Amino acid sequence: MEVKGKIIAVLPEMSGTSKAGNPWKKREYVLETLENYPKKVHFDFFGERADQFPLNLGDFITLSFDIESREYNGRWFTSIRGWKAEKGDAAMASAPTAPAQAIPPTAYPGAGAPAAPQMQAPFPGGDGTEDLPF
């Protein structure tokens, strides 16, 4: 999956050692989408990708990510794990996003044939005989 947006928060890097003794690293960011009604998306890069894709506050990016949910003590948690970030520029913000999936006009039955005229029902009570109280 992909989302375009601007980095509005860079959270502190986290690191540690797993139970198996392997070191790990995670960098977390918050992205604001470039839509009419912007959404904030918290995501992270884990392991070697934390260093592979360094991002800064104000960067415009296209984020490729996976969504993963897991259960812990009867509650479910969802995370967005980035696997690629392509940097853009401020022109990304003004570029309109394309509709998700437009159906071509030729996919409709009878495409290319003239449309049949539509009959309209007469307005009920147009002659003043309506029985509504208002």
Q: What is the number of helices?
A: 2
Average pLDDT, all residues = 81
Residue runs with pLDDT of under 50 for 5 or more positions: 97-103
Distance between the termini: 53 Å
Largest sheet: 6 strands, antiparallel
Q: Give the overall form.
A: flat
Q: What share of the residues lie within helices?
A: under 10%
Q: H/E series, N to C?
A: EEEEHEEH
Radius of gyration (CA) equals: 26 Å
* Extended strand count: 6
Q: Which percent band covers the strand fraction?
A: 35-45%
User: What structural category characterises the helix and strand content?
Assistant: mainly beta
Describe the structure.
By secondary structure, the chain is mainly beta. The protein is built from 2 helices and 6 strands. Strands 1, 2, 3, 4, 5 and 6 form a 6-stranded antiparallel beta sheet that branches. The longest helix has 4 residues. The radius of gyration is 26 Å and the shape is flat.
Features:
134 residues; mainly beta; six-stranded antiparallel sheet; 2 helices; 6 strands; 43% strand
Topology:
Layout lengths: L1 E9 L3 E4 L5 E11 L6 E7 L2 H4 L7 E13 L2 E13 L3 H4 L40
Antiparallel strand pairs: 1-3, 1-5, 2-3, 3-4, 5-6
Task: Give a brief rundown of this model.
The chain is built from two helices and six strands, in the order E-E-E-E-H-E-E-H. With 134 residues, the chain is mainly beta. Strands 1, 2, 3, 4, 5 and 6 form a six-stranded antiparallel sheet that branches.
